[in-house]
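Weekly modeling sync, notes
Attendees: S.R. (lead), two postdocs, one rotation student

Agenda item 3: backlog of single-chain predictions. S.R. asked that every request posted to the team notebook include the full sequence so nobody has to chase files. The rotation student volunteered to paste the first one in as an example of the format we agreed on. Action items at the bottom.

Example entry:
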Amino acid sequence: MESNAELDSIDLAILAELQKDARLPNKDLAERLGVAPSTALERVRSLRRRGMITGFRATVDTARLGRPLQALFALRVKPHTRQIVDPLRALVLSLPETITLFHVAGTEDFLVHVAVADADHLHRLALEKFLIRREIVHLQTTLIFKTEHQPIQLPAEM
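Predicted structure, as returned to the notebook:
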């Protein structure tokens, strides 16, 4: 893992600007940073090569897709072995309702962030996709009222 010390003020500014708007044209990025467009382009390429920028994506409003209800499923799995966990992970990630899967330490083994049409859909999902599996010995559902994201991620020492 690369050290944060290798990020200078221009790198940090690039990361901040692209986290605000990943579609920002290079010309505009360079202007905001006060550098030449060729410098901005090379710096972004360097950040990608070094693994600081791992990708770009569109954020989708699941409510506008007909899935306004979001929830977290906390799953406990037994036995917790690779032979059980790997197929379960693959199944969860194949479900269209799944937004994010977290494999966690603690009382629960997985947190699954889902978005569904309504409470009936959530109930069916829990019963028909999760609780029918023998390895899932506990499922707890938490409804999500509002989701907010920290828009800019900075190195730990910031």
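Discussion: group reviewed the output briefly. The helical segments are 9-20, 26-33, 37-49, 82-94, 119-130.
Action items: rotation student to repeat for the remaining queue; S.R. to check formatting next week.
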